[in-house]
Design a protein that fits this description.
By secondary structure, this protein is α+β, with helices and mostly antiparallel strands. Among the domains are: 3-113, no CATH class; 122-278, Jelly Rolls (Sandwich), CATH 2.60.120.1440. 23% of the residues lie in helices and 28% in strands. The protein contains 8 helices and 19 strands. Strands 1, 2, 3, 4, 5, 6, 7, 8, 9, 10, 11, 12 and 13 form a 13-stranded mixed sheet that branches. Strand 12 (253-256) and strand 13 form a beta hairpin. The longest helix is centred in the first third of the chain and has 21 residues, at 93-113.
Length: 422
Amino acid sequence: MTPDERFDDLWTDFLEGELDAGGLDELQQLLASDPALARRAADLYGEHRLLGLAHQSDDRFVPDTVDRALREREGFVESVVRRAAPRAPRFPRVLGYVAVAAAAFLLSLGLQLLPSTPPAGPVATLVRSDGARWDRHGVLPEGRRLLQGRLRLLEGSAALLFDSGAVMLLTGPTDLDLESRGRALLRSGKVTVEASEAYGFTVGTPKGDAVDLGTEFAVAVESGGATEVHVLQGEVAWERPSEKARVLQTGQAVRFESTLEGRRVPLTGKGFKELLQSIRPEPREKALVVHEGFDYPAGTIEPVQASGGVGFKGPWRVRTAEEAGRDPDPSTAMVIQPGGLSRGGSLQFPAARTFRIRPLAEPLDLGRDDVTYVSFLLRQEPVTRGEQSFFRLTFRSSQDFMSHVVGFGMPPQRRPAIYRNR
C-alpha cells in the first residue's frame, strides 16, 4: 500500500470517528514526513469548513495542524497568543493548559512543514453569478476555484465562498485581491460580507482594515481611496497600523477620507440575504438530474427489482467480489419501508457494514469545475452503548471503483462530513 493510499484509509477513519490512538500517531507521522500530504489534508479539511459542516469542539491533531498552521501564517501566532490570554473560562483550567501546549506544538510543526515561498493556491469558490463579466477571464463558471491574486469584476454580480467560511457578495465594477482564505484587499468597488462562520475575516482597504467580529458588513472603496464601512449586523473592528482598533456596532456607518477618525454617514444598502437572493444562479438545463424515492413494495426485495427513480442506468446492485475484497456485504436483500422519510418509501440498512450501488445515466465529471447540489433524507435509529453507526453517499469512478471518490456522510459523532481522494 502506498503512502497516499494509507493516508486515504486513515483520513476516512478519522472523519468517521473510527481512528484509534495508534492510527492517529500513524497519521501524524505521515503528515509530518510528507508536506504534500499535509497540504492535501489541509485542502480536504478546508472543504468541511467551506460548506460550514465542520463545527468541531475538541478535535486534536489534524484539524489544528492542517487548517491553521498550513492556512494563514500571518494570523496564526496572534491567535495562539489571544487564546492563551486570560479570559472567562469556558472549560476546566487543566484543559486550557493542554490546549495552549498543543497549539504551541502544532505551531512549531506547522511552520516546519511550510515551504519558504508556498505556491499560490485556491482560497475561494465562485458559488453564484448573475451577468458577471470578469477582466482577463470573461465568463467564469459557477463552482470555479479561485486562486490567490487579482480579481476584477467588470459588470454584474457574484458570490464568493472563502475557504474560511466567509461569503462575499460583489457588485461590478469591483477590483479585489484574494490574499488568503481569511483576507481580501478591496482596491475599489463594493462588497458585502457574511462571516458568522469565519470570525476574524478581514477586508483590507487603502484607509484601513475592516475585521469581522461575527457579523454582516459592507465595504465600499472609491477610485480616490475614500472608504465607507457599513455594519449591517454584529460588530466590525476598524484597524490601522500603530493605532488602537475601533469597534463599529450594528447600524453604524463611517466614511474615511483624509481624517483618521472618519465621519458618520447614513446606513444605506440592502441586507446580505436580500442581496444574495438578487444574484440569480446560472440557468440549468435540468432542474433535477437524479432522484430516488424508493417507491417500491414494502418488505424485502432483491436489488435487481429496485429499478425505479429518475436518472439511473439500470437497477441497484451489490458490490462485486473484486470491489468488496475481504469485506463482503452481510446480505444482498433490500428492505423497503413505506412512508416515513418521503412520499414514496425508504431503504432500511441492517446493523452491519452494507453497501448498495447504482450507476448514473449521466455521469458526473469530477475533473470539471461545476456545481452539483446533493441532498438526502436520513433517519438514524438509536444504538446501544458502545455501538457506532454511520452513513455515507459516495460517487465513484465507473472505470476505477477504488479511486476518484467524492462522498457525503454522517459519521458516528453526528457531524456531517465530506470525503474525497484522488
